[in-house]
Write a structure and sequence with these properties.
By secondary structure, this protein is an all-alpha fold. It folds into 2 domains: 20-157, Farnesyl Diphosphate Synthase; 203-380, Orthogonal Bundle (Farnesyl Diphosphate Synthase), CATH 1.10.600.10. The chain has 20 helices and no strands. It has helices at 2-9, 14-29, 35-47, 49-54, 60-81, 87-100, 113-120, 123-129, 134-155, 162-186, 195-212, 214-218, 230-233, 249-264, 267-275, 280-300, 315-324, 328-345, 353-369, 388-408. The radius of gyration is 22 Å and the shape is globular.
Length: 413
């Protein structure tokens, strides 16, 4: 019912949503027959449906490598995330995880739901990993080793300063950016880019997730997880969990805006990284999550709902981004439009207003100087009301036809 209401409010979401649904079904039908690869791709769909769709952009060999890279790091992340595991047990596993991926007999039961299944049957991932090319294996092992060591470091260390925050995000996401760049290079499709740019790609996504997931992380049982740096939140409240209480709403939003402003510092590097990509499938694979990130930041900025529940882009807009992101012109257009949305939400009385506006102006300037804004598709920010009634009528007609067909052919179900 919620989806129908959303479509009636944003009628031109309908076609991209339909295409996304068809793409998801087609992706599930293309799961390889070999048991270990079938497990890997089935698990990929369970732990991240959006990533499972985006990964379909890639060629077979690179897609397999990225799939295994994602699942290995997801398994590593499952160990880190499980707050019920004692530190003296968790730290050695994180540090040695890069060796475990070569061992088909190793497993460690932790996590919940689909993540527990992944950990219990991780031998399938190891089997698939061992079938990858040596250059892919070496890239995955290197990043897993460095990430595991970084995670182990922060198990015993709080995120106090902004430098700590950047370091933590480097270990859990910046290294993903470096690893993907290595895999792209190993495939022969791309040049190896500067580590700093790859790192920014990861940090932009990770900081967005940390901002969006505040409430989930702070309410984690048996122990809350705290990734917002004390250097930022201590300017507004005495304890990080105080941000979720209604009496601190004004300070909470100011702190949130401070966090968003910090994340925006990586946007220009991300644009530089994407503009250098040559392979269209790799470009789309990289561009779609980056657009989702700046869109989510625009949604979260100045939004008290971050401290009350789940804030995320509506599914129809996500479908549009996946469907219509084809060229760098589309990326520049999306970044410019979302930066404009953010700019319109900045309150001049916000403590970080000047800094926020400065970052947004820099992003908009980069987009303008590309010379491609006039070639973009305006699918992110547009007035949909002009033809909304027509789309609603068309939707009602289509739904009526579908229902008429189903009732006329009951045995087909």
């Amino acid at each position: 019912m919620g989806t129908l209401r959303s479509i009636l409010k944003h009628p031109d979401d309908f076609y991209p949503l339909l295409k996304l649904k068809i793409a998801a079904r087609n992706a599930e039908k293309q799961i390889p027959p070999e048991p270990h690869w079938a497990f890997c791709y089935t698990m990929l769909h369970k732990v991240s449906r959006s990533f499972a769709l985006v990964i379909q952009q890639l060629g077979t060999d690179l897609r397999n490598a990225v799939c295994i890279f994602y699942l290995v790091l997801r398994a590593l992340d499952t160990v880190e995330d499980d707050t019920s595991i004692a530190t003296d047990v968790k730290v050695p596993i994180l540090i040695a995880f890069h060796r475990h991926i070569y061992d088909r007999d190793w497993h460690f039961s932790c996590g919940t739901k689909e993540y527990k299944v992944l950990m219990d049957q991780i031998h399938h991932v190891s089997t698939a990993f061992l079938e990858l090319g040596k250059n892919y294996q070496e890239a995955i092992e290197d990043i897993t080793k460095r990430m595991g060591a970084g995670m182990a470091k922060f198990i015993c260390k709080e995120v106090e300063t902004i430098d700590d925050y950047d370091e933590y995000c480097h270990y859990v996401a910046g290294l993903v950016g470096l690893g993907l760049s290595k895999l792209f290079h190993a495939s022969g499709s791309e040049d190896l880019v500067f580590d700093s740019l790859s790192n920014s790609m990861g940090l932009f996504l990770q900081k967005t997730n940390i901002i969006r997931d505040y409430l989930e992380d702070i309410n984690e049982i048996p122990k809350s997880r705290m990734f917002w740096p004390r250097e930022i939140w201590s300017k507004y409240v005495n304890k990080l969990e105080d941000l979720k209480y209604e009496e601190n709403s004004v300070k909470a939003v100011q702190c949130l805006n401070d966090m968003v402003t910090n994340a925006l510092m990586h946007a220009e590097d991300s644009l530089i990284y994407m503009s250098a990509l040559r392979d269209s499938s790799i470009f789309r694979f990289c561009a779609i999550p980056q657009i989702m990130a700046i869109g989510t930041l625009a949604l979260c900025y100045n939004n008290i709902e971050v401290f009350r529940g789940v804030v995320k882009m509506r599914r129809g807009l996500t479908a549009k981004v996946i469907d219509r992101t084809k060229t760098m012109a589309d990326v520049y257009g999306a970044f410019f439009d979302f930066a404009s949305v953010l700019e319109s939400k900045v309150d001049k009385n916000d403590p970080n207003a000047t800094k926020t506006l400065s970052r947004l102006v820099a992003i908009q300037k980069s987009c303008r100087e590309s010379g491609l804004l006039s070639k973009r598709k305006s699918f992110i920010v547009k007035n949909e009301n002009g033809y909304g009634s027509f789309m609603i009528v068309m939707l009602v007609i289509m739904v009526s036809i579908i229902f008429a067909y189903l009732f006329a052919n009951p045995h087909n179900n």
